[in-house]
Amino acid sequence: MLEILALPIPLIVTFMVATFFAAMVQGTIGFGFAIVSVPLLLNIDPRLAPEPQLFVQLPLSLLMFYRERKSADYKAAVWTTVGRVPGTVIGLGLLRIASQSWLDVIIGGLVLLGALLLASGGSIKRNKITEFFAGGFSGLGHAVSSIGGPPLALLYKDDKGPTIRATISLIFAVGLVMTIAGRVVEGHIEVRHLALGALGFPALIGGLYCSRFLLERVEGAPLRRGILFIAGLAAVLLLQRGLSELL
Question: Among 62, 123, 200, 228, which residue has the least CB neighbours within 10 Å?
Fold first, then answer.
């Protein structure tokens, strides 16, 4: 496997450390794995992200859903997943015609706007329409940058922690299969991405295990603040990455 990766050991260790902390964040608040890991790893070495994160997020999402499956909102997950289909298709299409820099700026701007509106006291009423569009934006974000959590988290920010984590994890699991399949068809997935994702599995398990000790500490207002903070951070990082290459 190391021959396939052709990466020095320090880079692999860095990947696993970032995976551990990112899995702990997502295991605690329900999303944030790609937000924590992708920008950091891209700046260290572009070979470490964003494709490998898709293969780490899939088992992470499945394990998180199983952990709190009794609290999942299955009806909402259906409409959100339906919305991810056109979102993923549009995202894969944009990968063909738009530069990654412009995509980062557009997605970052939309997420930042949503986070600011909700931080000011606003809220999004959950219904079939908002669930569909949140799923669409999530699918688009996952397809182009592996970051698809903020739209879903903003939609669920007023729910209880178990519902947020279980429902978003279920949506992620189904959506990640779509994203990975689409990227395979488009030729964006290589064997080394799968190999690196497999190497990150032990770190994923460790991070998810540690998150269980933080769940009660973040319930309620701390969880809502954490969602807004991580969503805002994702937007700023995407904007910074996109604008730094455009200017």
Answer: 123
Given pLDDT bands bounded at 50, 70 and 90, which one contains residue 167? very high
- pTM of this prediction? 0.88
Question: Three-class SS of residue 88?
Answer: helix
The label of the residue with tokens 């497999």 reads: 198
User: Which residue in this structure is represented by tokens 């992708």?
Assistant: 38
Give the range among 1-10, 25-34, 194-203 with minimum mean pLDDT. Answer: 1-10
- What is the number of structural domains in the chain? 1
* Rounded-to-integer distance, Cα 165 and Cα 168, Å: 5
Domain that holds residue 105: 2-246
Buried b (16+ CB within 10 A) or exposed e, 190-205: eebbbbbbebbbebbe
User: Per the structure block, which two tokens stand in for 183?
Assistant: 């990227």
Q: Six-digit token pair at 195?
A: 């190999």
| Token digits of residue 225 | 């603040």
Residue 3 — very low, low, confident or very high, per pLDDT cuts 50/70/90?
low
Predicted confidence at residue 6, as pLDDT, reads 78
Averaged over 217-236, what is the pLDDT?
85
